[in-house]
Amino acid sequence: MKVIETSLPGVLIIEPKVFGDERGYFMESWQQQRYRDIGIKSDFVQSNVSKSSHGVLRGLHFQNPNPQGKLVSVLVGEVYDVAVDIRRGSPSFGQYVAVTLNHDNHRQFYVPEGFAHGFCVCSDYAIFSYMCTDYYNAAADASIAWNDADIGIDWPIDSPQLSAKDQAANKLAEFPADKLPTYQP
Q: Model-level pTM greater than 0.85?
């Protein structure tokens, strides 16, 4: 597998080896030792799949306490996927990195604990898969405004379909410091 480091330390783009022929393809989507060898040492405790239609934007989501690291991929369709560093005291606080994930490139995106995560669907629909390092905790769940100008994400969409939670999301600067994760060098 090929690992691409991004401008945000710990955020990785992973290109698994894909073995294909005229019948289809096979790829290993997770193998604990291989992923530990590239620096993903967390244990995953929950796996989720979502389906969204074109123009849906989910995020920017995070949990604190109980932050979740996520290994995400697209099974069908295409998404523009984003990770934002929201760790208080981090040298890259408020910065983001984005990647296109689709069923043809088979890429995975690792978003560590302490980062907000979001994606928008660029194809007719997308089936999105993600493994999480902690359980979902509704009381710790939060959302940052997708169009926060201070973050400045260059989304490939102007008028996304948003959930009520994401429509009401605050800007990063509006979160009290104790509601954000802390940078651990």
A: yes
Answer for the pair 117, 61: CB distance below 8 angstroms, yes or no.
Answer: yes
Of the residues 25, 103, 130, 136, which is catalytic?
Answer: 130
Phi first, then psi: what are they for 88, rounded to 5°? -55, 130
Q: Which residues are 70's β-sheet partners?
A: 111, 132
- For residue range 79-105, what is the model confidence (pLDDT) as tens digits? 999 999 999 999 999 999 999 999 999
d(CA 172, CA 169): 9
Cα gap 54→11, rounded to integer Å:
26
Q: What DSSP letter does each residue of 144-179 carry, written as one string?
A: B-TT-TTT----S-SS-B--HHHHTPBPGGGS-GGG
Beta bridge partners of residue 52, listed in sequence order: 126
Structure tokens at 90: 């981090």
In this structure, how many other beta carbons lie within 10 angstroms of the beta carbon of residue 64?
Answer: 21
**Does domain 2-179 correspond to CATH entry 2.60.120.10?**
yes
* 61 given a catalytic annotation: yes
Active-site residue (options: 61, 96, 110, 117): 61
Residue 117: active-site member: no
Hey, which residues does 51 pair with through a beta bridge?
127
Q: CA 144, 148, 153: angle at the middle one, nearest 5? A: 100
| Residue ranges per structural domain of the chain | 2-179
Q: What tokens appear for 91 in the block?
A: 């040298």
